[in-house]
Amino acid sequence: MNSTLEVVVVPVSNVDAALAFYRDGLGFHLDLDLDHASGDAYRVVQLTPPGSGCSIQLGRGITTMAPGSLDRLQLVVRDLRAAQAELTARGVGVSQITVFDRDGQQHPYREGDDLNNTGFMYFKDPDGNRWAVQQISDRP
After folding, report:
1. What gap in Å lies between CA 100 and CA 111, rounded to an integer?
2. Could you tell me which CATH number the domain at 71-135 has?
3. Side-chain-side CA neighbours of residue 11 (13 Å)
């Protein structure tokens, strides 16, 4: 059986604030203007990171998860330093870049470190949902 992961629900407390963060801060695209509400109890907004086959859904009445309870959703980029500069310019508070060595120890990036597969940075959305960004510039 083949299957694809297409949507991840991100629990948020304020849909409008989360929408602004993911659309304006991270540059995710609003899918086909998918922002649908049914009264005050239900609203779903779907966004997709550029180049991704998996979308996220934000909303009210779509999950029982507590806002901020997701830990380490992961985005992958080809150039971590460029992604850090872009996100910082968009107002997203990202961590310093870190690298995992062969022993699994994490240390701050040093000029000359190979970031492919081992380089990461981190950020949180307005509710505290935690994200990782990994550089994978070459896949075997």
Report:
1. 14
2. 3.10.180.10
3. 10
Q: Rounded distance, CA 14 to CA 46, Å?
A: 14
Instruction: Tell me yes or no: is domain 7-60 CATH 3.40.1110.10.
Output: no
How do residues 107-123 score in pLDDT, each as one tens digit? 999 999 999 999 999 99
Mind listing the pLDDT tens digit for each residue in 5-16?
Answer: 999 999 999 999
Domain residue ranges in the chain: 7-60, 71-135
* Among the listed residues 73, 85, 14, 13, the one whose alpha carbon sits nearest the alpha carbon of residue 49: 73
**pTM, entire model:** 0.93
